[in-house]
Amino acid sequence: MRQCVNVFIQMRRIFPCFLIAPSPFSPMIFSQQELAQFRADTPASKEVIHFNNAGAALQPLAVQQAVKDHLDLEYRLGGYEAAAQRAKHSQAFYSAVAKLLNAQPTQIAYMGSSTDAYNRALSAISFAPDDLILTTENDYASNHLAFLQIAKHYRVRIEMAPECEEGGVDIAALQQMLRDQRPKLVAVTHMPTSNGLIQDVAAIGQTCREMDVLYLVDACQTAGQLPLDVQTIGCDFLTATSRKFLRGPRGCGFLYVSQRVLDQNLAPHYLDLHSAIWTAPHAYDLQVDARRFELWERNHANLQGMVAAVQYAQQIGLNRIADYTAYLADEFRQRIVELPSVQVMDYGKQLGAIVTIHLPSQDPQALLQSLRAVGLHTSISWQDYARHDLLRKNVPWGLRCSLHYYNTIEEVDKATKKIFKIIC
User: Fold this and answer.
1) How far apart are CA 319 and CA 313, in angstroms?
2) Residue 226: inside a domain
């Protein structure tokens, strides 16, 4: 199904009059009873069409309850006492995220955000002049800004792997660059914020392992949308947030750290009394596990909410979530491309739950507000969020619609009609 819609989009580029009817087939990935339960667990889904899951998803009741329970206890007892009483609930974070990633709890660190996790991972790498950071044209803006800062401070080089004609990293070309140039770091965003592309991070990871090159994966948009197996991906670091497809609270995320990074004693800049132990007036010992990347301060309510979100997704099954969200997004692309003056910007061998479109005749801010006014939640990806990607496509912005498993095919039809009424 995913390959079919990619061919369809390519045909539309070549032949603008090329049409295809939306597929009447709805795969029985979830039963009607399951979908009804997801929506019952997400009361806000009855009030709005929330296609902004790549920004911040609607939280299930289990997440809200976990956050509320801890906050209520903090009000009654105080922050330290509440954390002590619910220590097991907070400690469950490590095993829950480890299970999500097929990792060990000792390889997981709590973070305030995905960008916080990314920067702390970068700070553990000893860059030197003329080192190479090899990345892609689909970096997240914050990640690339960090690369530019590293280049300024340490005089390292930044290069981007060539893209395939159909979209995504050219794996063969990247492998050759690895052999020829031996970069200090390979950094790949699994799914960009500005289009539906899913990069083949496992194929890239295999080459990084063969060449003994550090490998950093930004899974901000795929955690909670796709199954993630760090053993298969072969990464040294993987970062993600709670608020997007995982459906957890804002203000928290996680970092996976490989055993070889821990064994090499790599650690971030600026430790505290949690990430290291002050053993003598002029000496300290790092934590032996991934906690060396953490800081002591954390929001325990949000942390416990993230645990509930991870467990909720695991109960449903990440493979099923991936298949259903890809199906919904494919159906939306096929419908939305029929509207006048709409450009679908997604392309690649594999597409996920993010659908990005450009409407040249529309004012983006006015469009966003009009959609919100009729109960359709989306967001705008601006050029400075994804400069290489959107410059290549020669568009200044894209309307991003990101679907999830509590959305329905009926909502896809309604959303298409709402957009049509606004732009026509």
Assistant:
1) 10
2) yes
- For the cut 60, the answer to whether the pLDDT of residue 17 exceeds it is no
Residue 56 lies in a domain: no
CB 401 within 8 A of CB 344: no
Residue 359 sits in the same domain as residue 241: no
| Same domain, residue pair 306 and 361 | no
Residues 78 and 202 in one domain: yes
pLDDT digits (tens, 9 = 90+) for 242-299: 999 999 999 999 999 999 999 999 999 999 999 999 999 999 999 999 999 999 999 9
Q: Are strands 132-135 and 157-160 parallel, antiparallel or unpaired?
A: parallel
Return the structure tokens found at 217. 């994966």
Query: Is the same domain home to 106 and 183?
Result: yes
Longest dimension (CA), the chain: 74
Is pLDDT at 424 greater than 90 in this prediction? Answer: no
Final residue before a domain boundary, out of 293, 315, 337: 315
CA–CA distance from 95 to each of 89, 206, 256, 270 (Å)?
A: 11, 26, 12, 26
Query: What whole-number distance in Å separates Cα of residue 340 and Cα of residue 243?
Result: 33
- Quick one: CA torsion of 224, 229, 230, 235, rounded to 10 degrees? -80
Domain shared by 387 and 288, yes or no? no
- Give the pLDDT band (50/70/90) at residue 166: confident
13 and 68 co-located in one domain = no
Residue 278: how many other CB atoms lie within 10 Å: 12
Q: Which of 295, 315, 335 is the last residue of a domain?
A: 315
Rounded to whole angstroms, how far apart are CA atoms 164 and 150?
Answer: 28
pTM: 0.92
Write the DSSP assignment of 4-60 as a string of letters. Answer: HHHHHHHHHHH-TT---PPP----TTS-HHHHHHHHHT-GGGGT-EE-BTTT-PPPP
Give the DSSP letter string of 355-405: EEEE-TTS-HHHHHHHHHHTTEE-EEEEGGGSHHHHHHHT-SEEEEEE--T
Domains in the chain, number: 2
Between CA 398 and CA 87 the distance in angstroms is 43
| Domain coverage including residue 352 | 2-51+317-423
- pLDDT of 70 higher than 70: yes
Please give the Cα distance from 303 to 63 (Å, whole number): 10
For residue 111, the SS3 value is: strand
Q: What is the mean pLDDT of the chain?
A: 92
